[in-house]
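queue> pop job 88
queue> type: inverse folding (structure -> sequence)
queue> payload:
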C-alpha cells in the first residue's frame, strides 16, 4: 500500500506541476479560455477578472503539486486538490459534451489536447486524488517543517514571478502561429493536404402551399408549376481545412483591405494595441525613437488596433501622430500580441522579431 500511495503522490504532484508550468508560459491563454466559458454561460461580467484568476489558478497548481511531493500540510492540500480536480473535471466534461471547444486549454497552447482526452485525464486524476485523500494520514513529510515551508515559499515566488515575466516580456516559448520565423501570409493559407467542408446546394420551391427541396439533378420536369423560394447550402461533410492564422485582415479608414500591401513590404513595423489600458505615456518615448529610426530607413510603421478612434486620440499629441492606423479582428490581435502593446518587425510578411513594449529598443537596434 505504501508503494501505491507514494507512486500516486508522485504522479499527481508532477502532473499538477507540469500542467501549471506549461500554462505559466502564457497566462493570457488561460485567461482567454476562461472568457470563452463565461461568454457561453452568459457571464461576461466576469471577463475583466479572468487574468488574475488564471494567474492564481496556475500558481496554485504548481504550489499544490509541490506540496504533495513534499507531503506538506496534507490535510489542507488534499481538500484543495480534490475541490480543484472536481472543478476541472466539470469544465472538461462540459467542453467535451457541449462540442463547443476544440481545445480545453488544460496544457496551454503548447500541448493542445482534445476535450475527450482532457476529460479522461481528469477522471483518472480524480480517482487518484480520491485514493490519496482516503490515505492522506499515511502521507508523511519528506523534510522538516521549516525546510518544507521554505521550499513552498520559493515555489510560490517562482510561480508568480515567472508569470509576471511572461506577461511583461512575452512568453519565452512561443507556441502560437505568430512565432518568430513564421510568414503570416503563408500561415493564413489552408494546410497542405487539408480537406475543406463539403456542401450540397439545395433549391427550395413551393407548390400548393408546401415547400420542397431539390438538388440540381433532382429538379422535377414540371418545375414551371413550382414557385422558387430560396437556395440553401447544407453541410454534408465537415472538413479539417482551417488555417493556423485566422482573422488577420487590416483595413484603414476607407475599409479597404490592406493586408497584402503590408505583408508585401520589404520591411515593416507593426505596433499592436488591443486597447489603451497601458497608457501611451508609459511607452511613447521608446516607440517615438523606434518610429524615428524606422522613418530614417524608409521602413513603414503601422498601428494595428480594434479601436481606431481611440488610437487617433491617444496618438494625437505624440511624435508619431501621423502613423497609419489599421483595424483588425480583436481575437487576431490578442493572439498575435501577448503584451499590450507589442511590436513586430516584418520582412515580406515574415516575423523577424517581436517584442513587448518594454523592449522596443531591441527592434530599434535591429533596423539600425
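queue> result:
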Amino acid at each position: 500500500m505504501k508503494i501505491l500511495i507514494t507512486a500516486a503522490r508522485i504522479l499527481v504532484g508532477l502532473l499538477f506541476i507540469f500542467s501549471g508550468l506549461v500554462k505559466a508560459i502564457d497566462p493570457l491563454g488561460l485567461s482567454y479560455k476562461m472568457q470563452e466559458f463565461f461568454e457561453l454561460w452568459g457571464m461576461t461580467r466576469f471577463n475583466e477578472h479572468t487574468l488574475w484568476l488564471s494567474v492564481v489558478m496556475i500558481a496554485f497548481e504548481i504550489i499544490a503539486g509541490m506540496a504533495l511531493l513534499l507531503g506538506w500540510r496534507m490535510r489542507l492540500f488534499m481538500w484543495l486538490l480534490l475541490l480543484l480536480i472536481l472543478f476541472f473535471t466539470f469544465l472538461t466534461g462540459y467542453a467535451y459534451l457541449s462540442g463547443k471547444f476544440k481545445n480545453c486549454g488544460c496544457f496551454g497552447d503548447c500541448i493542445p489536447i482534445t476535450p475527450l482526452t482532457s476529460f479522461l485525464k481528469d477522471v483518472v486524476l480524480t480517482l487518484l486524488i480520491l485514493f490519496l485523500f482516503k490515505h492522506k494520514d499515511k502521507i508523511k513529510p519528506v523534510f522538516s517543517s521549516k525546510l518544507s515551508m521554505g521550499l513552498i515559499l520559493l515555489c510560490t515566488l517562482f510561480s508568480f514571478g515567472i508569470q509576471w515575466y511572461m506577461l511583461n516580456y512575452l512568453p519565452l516559448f512561443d507556441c502560437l502561429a505568430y512565432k518568430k520565423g513564421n510568414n503570416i501570409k503563408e500561415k493564413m493559407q489552408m494546410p497542405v493536404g487539408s480537406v475543406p467542408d463539403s456542401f450540397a446546394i439545395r433549391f427550395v420551391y413551393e407548390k400548393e402551399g408546401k415547400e420542397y427541396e431539390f438538388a440540381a439533378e433532382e429538379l422535377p420536369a414540371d418545375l414551371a408549376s413550382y414557385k422558387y423560394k430560396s437556395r440553401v447550402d447544407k453541410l454534408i461533410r465537415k472538413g479539417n481545412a482551417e488555417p493556423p492564422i485566422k482573422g488577420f485582415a487590416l483595413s484603414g479608414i476607407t475599409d479597404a483591405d490592406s493586408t497584402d500591401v503590408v505583408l508585401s513590404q520589404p520591411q515593416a513595423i507593426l505596433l499592436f494595441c488591443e486597447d489603451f489600458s497601458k497608457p501611451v505615456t508609459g511607452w511613447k518615448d521608446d516607440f517615438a525613437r523606434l518610429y524615428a529610426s524606422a522613418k530614417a530607413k524608409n521602413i513603414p510603421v503601422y498601428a494595428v488596433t480594434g479601436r481606431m478612434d481611440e488610437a487617433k486620440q491617444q496618438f494625437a499629441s505624440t511624435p508619431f501622430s501621423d502613423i497609419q492606423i489599421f483595424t483588425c479582428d480583436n481575437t487576431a490581435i490578442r493572439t498575435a500580441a501577448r503584451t499590450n502593446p507589442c511590436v513586430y518587425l516584418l520582412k515580406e510578411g515574415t516575423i523577424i522579431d517581436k517584442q513587448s513594449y518594454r523592449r522596443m529598443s531591441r527592434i530599434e537596434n535591429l533596423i539600425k
